[in-house]
Amino acid sequence: MMRLGAWQGKIIGLTAFLFLAAHAAFAQGLVTCGNASGSMCTWTDLVGGSGSLVAKVVNYAIFGFAIPIAVGFFIWGGIKMITSGGNEGRFKEGKDVVTGVLWGLAIALGAWIIINTVIAILTA
To answer: What does R_g of the chain's alpha carbons equal in angstroms?
Structure first.
């Protein structure tokens, strides 16, 4: 298992905080029904369309969290590769990070496509 240096952990923590703080500052209500207006929530509010609770949570998880974190790790892997200085082991570590990020994004985006397809089928 790879151990992070003190400065690397601080940079990752600060980056995660900035991403999460920005999302919290611009947050909107997840559920638009059942508020003071008295409208009851329906199945469509939970699972239907792009304004549903499930769609908002999945879109936030993918586009608001997974992709920014992946970009950070992609940059980190690239820096490791660039600063390897001919050290094959360090270059391989950076290459493994970049490969892992690409596989992770492929899996996350594939899951996003599957979930959107299931939502479309359930609300058709």
So the answer is: 19
